[in-house]
Amino acid sequence: MDVEKFIEPSSTYHMLGSDDPYSYAQNSEYQKQLVVSAEELIFELIDKHLDIEKPSFDPNKIFRIGDFGCSIGPNTFFAVENIIKSVENKYKYKSNIKNPRIPEYHVFFNDHVDNDFNALFRNIPITRKYFPAGVPGSFHGRLFPNATLHFVHCSTALHWLSRIPKEVTETNSSAFNKGRIHYTGAKKEVKEVYSTQYRKDIKSFLSARAQELVPGGLMVLVILGFPGGVLPSESSIGIGFNILGSCLEDMVQMGKITEEEVDSFNLPFYYPSPSELKALIEENGCFNIERIERLSEPMKNEKQNLNILIKVCVSHLRAVIGGLIEEHFGNEIVEELFQLHMKKLHENPMMFDEKYRKEANYFMFLKQKSHL
Amino acid sequence: MDVEKFIEPSSTYHMLGSDDPYSYAQNSEYQKQLVVSAEELIFELIDKHLDIEKPSFDPNKIFRIGDFGCSIGPNTFFAVENIIKSVENKYKYKSNIKNPRIPEYHVFFNDHVDNDFNALFRNIPITRKYFPAGVPGSFHGRLFPNATLHFVHCSTALHWLSRIPKEVTETNSSAFNKGRIHYTGAKKEVKEVYSTQYRKDIKSFLSARAQELVPGGLMVLVILGFPGGVLPSESSIGIGFNILGSCLEDMVQMGKITEEEVDSFNLPFYYPSPSELKALIEENGCFNIERIERLSEPMKNEKQNLNILIKVCVSHLRAVIGGLIEEHFGNEIVEELFQLHMKKLHENPMMFDEKYRKEANYFMFLKQKSHL
Prior knowledge:
Mean pLDDT of chain A: 89
Oligomer: homodimer
Family (chains A, B): Belongs to the methyltransferase superfamily. Type-7 methyltransferase family.
Organism (chains A, B): Abeliophyllum distichum
Number of helices of chain A: 9
Distance between the termini of chain A: 20 Å
GO molecular function, one term (chains A, B): metal ion binding
Shape of chain A: globular
CATH superfamily of the domain at 23-230 and 268-297 and 357-368 in chain A: Vaccinia Virus protein VP39
CATH topology of the domain at 23-230 and 268-297 and 357-368 in chain A: Rossmann fold
Pfam families (chains A, B): Methyltransf_7 (PF03492)
InterPro entries (chains A, B): MeTrfase_7, MeTrfase_capping, SAM-dependent_MTases_sf
Strand order of the largest sheet of chain A: 3-2-1-4-5-7-6
CATH class of the domain at 23-230 and 268-297 and 357-368 in chain A: Alpha Beta
Number of strands of chain A: 7
CATH architecture of the domain at 23-230 and 268-297 and 357-368 in chain A: 3-Layer(aba) Sandwich
Order of helices and strands of chain A: HEHEHEEHEHHHEHHE
């Protein structure tokens, strides 16, 4: 047995745990709305594509579901409940036999080893209809034995890279990302090395999941990306990152952190276009793409007070990247940085303007090619 | 599907987590030596009883191992490694075919939802040959789908009751355990209600595991108990509990805690005799008993300085029951209580006398009756 494949890629990314006001659990309403808007699609596509007559899906056996990048809940629980409801519907009403059996469900919640699994486990609903388990480790590597899972779910997690491409922090590299914290607005070499890393990561993810899924197993991905042709610097996400970067620059001026610290800090996020992602999936060759759909934008029709919008935005960003900031710059600057960020967004709230909301969430429904 | 079976019995028992000096990981040398002394027996008995020719044990499939009451390691990792080594030996050298396949291993680490799974996950060895998962919940209930596991391991965990029998805290009950914290030295009614609770708990455990194991699945239990006829009050464990109880009484006299608090505190441990346990397993009827053996006593031949012995003993007890004490009496008294306990053991070290070391560890190797 190859021990290599069990070794965790070096990475310490995770959401802020526990139930404090800056935790992911308290700041993921946007993600929740995505889960809700994917619900009907999942129901329809499970009905269409789940091959309950095939031996892999024998209802006398166990139906195993994996959620990758689960954080500490509750969105992962909503997603899993919806998948189970959809699978149950298929077994109950679409079977050729009279009193069809329903399989038992074994559900695996995956996230990085630094995720707060204690909080996740405390949050699992008591009225669940499944047996839960937690799986620590990077989803860019193998996490399950061969042909274990029947359904994979991964929502708004795949924009996390497994690592920052090293060139962006090397002063002698043409992709050195001086004074910036992301490829947004940076020179093209920076975007290129981010893109190369993303390509590697997506391929690792797809190959690992293809082996872990049973023949004909299903996978839902919800991917945060940009429509073709949109520049990140013209989007609210990109504008937000640039403002955060300028806050760090201000803190250099104030002598709170060093220029070198900012130069060596980069956000590990990449946002593909749907056609870029489609090409990567086709190149990988392990999955048929059954559906790609742009999801309606969460919270779009909620006319909210700008003060509230800014507060929600900063709280969410802090839940997601607070850990990265703390690890790189130390705990002391976190509070001040996000206060400064909030102040700057009040001074310049352009990222909340409708015309910059160009990022989009793409729903993808894949089916493992059963000849694997 | 019956939701009832997923609901956790009320209980918050768990070992102290993390890597602090009072944690279970730092204070479980005794348990480690038990794992080591069970190693050879497990190797021999897997070789003898693992039915690798049966469909449930098809090497093209996955071999699933569950360790129940795993705490945060490292003993659980030693145990799992030994089981895998033994299983691999059987597949490699005892198969009828030439280049036999070896299955992949999926390993499930179970403990209460309050166990520190974050610490457990950080501690999993990097060079493991298996895919790990954590399973939160009481092992007195169902934790896995039907016919999932091939091998169950549970070492020095089954003496934990799922709850304190309520009669021992009811002032109007004949089993009210006034002024004591355990059935050691108490009136016979107290022992009886502890025994009744143990009977229920063992039956729940066996029935749950029998359903979760594949036909012919194997189970190792290591049980801390007393040989028939030995009174707990004549054993070092019992003497230790009585001294701890007297420390609590002293703290009542000092006005640090109330008499009612002591009267309502009882340790959730029961130590059966091997014949009592054997009768319960036979009555349950789901397993054949392939072997019962008394393990050699850990650390017996290590002649240690009394001061060190007392320190190790108090640290171990604190790792195991510190959480219970804290929950019942509050955090403030913990340090003082164990200091007092240490002092009293120095004044009266009789529990360390060879003649009182009457508790014993029983190794049991069970095989699920395959007609289930």
